[in-house]
Amino acid sequence: MTYQDLLLQISKENDKLLVMTAENRAAIRGLPQEIGDKFVDVGIAEQTMIGAAAGLALRGRVPLVHALATFLTLRAFEFIRTDVGIANLPVKVIGGVPGFLSDGNGPTHQAIEDISLMRGIPNMKVFCPADEEELVQGMKLIIDDPAPWYVRYNAMKPCVEHKAPVELGKAEVLSEGYDVALLVYGFLLKEAQVAKELLEKEGLSVRLVNVRTLKPIDGEVILKAARETRLLVTVEDHFLTGGLFSILSELLVHEQTKVNVLPIALKEKWFKPALLPNVLQHEGFTGAQLATTIMNYVKDAQHSVL
């Protein structure tokens, strides 16, 4: 089932569902003729869309709002914070082409601080599916959840055989391992899987954790990995500040847990626009490059990982 198929199915079953967009129809192009007045396109007016969605939510509707992740989380930030977050309304904010998925676009269209912004809003939760299978599973739960959610839209085909269905607030452990734990979310799971296989050929035992929801974070799985492995590696197409590395750091400090941590993220710069494979290569995020970065860290005696 595709994301669009899911919304069509739910809209027939649930009169409260309302699909809204700020002229970003790529994922929902076939819905207007199917669901009629349950579909609203406000044009390029993200703030207006959020304000209208909040008003509709106050009247018992469940609005799913769509726009490019950059313009939703930056341009409409105050509206999301004030109209949706403070009121704790069940508006679902769907950000298109987040992170590296904005590949050919320049910094103005790159949402690589979106998780930091959204998770900072009280009541707002954050879901980052690895593929369309997880997206569809997660959206069924999110639509029924009374909280506001930010979703990093990703409809790529699955790159792994999932071991567990999506549960909000729960991570998926794809492999057990006791040397290195890779913590990853979104489409970069594919590259992390490649890195895992390469590291295992080098003799390392690797745990691969698909984090799925960054807020709430699955502290139990992450702290277990911290206790049972020698190195935690966070991999994310997001600024170093405010994303998974920051969430992990906050958790470890709160729990007074000490472990080696290697963050792999964007550090104080936007990425170079190109086709997605070239973006990954240029920024050092291919599976092979991730494996090399991790092996170099492990072999560095000052880190005392092994």
UniProtKB/TrEMBL annotation:
It comes from the Bacteria. The keyword Protein transport does not apply. Its EC number is 2.2.1.7. One of its GO terms (biological process) is isopentenyl diphosphate biosynthetic process, methylerythritol 4-phosphate pathway. It holds the Pfam family Transket_pyr. It is an enzyme of class 2 (transferase). The keyword Magnesium applies. Coiled coil: none annotated. Residues 1-160 form the Transketolase-like pyrimidine-binding domain. Its cofactor is Mg(2+). Belongs to the transketolase family. DXPS subfamily. Homodimer. This is 1-deoxy-D-xylulose-5-phosphate synthase.
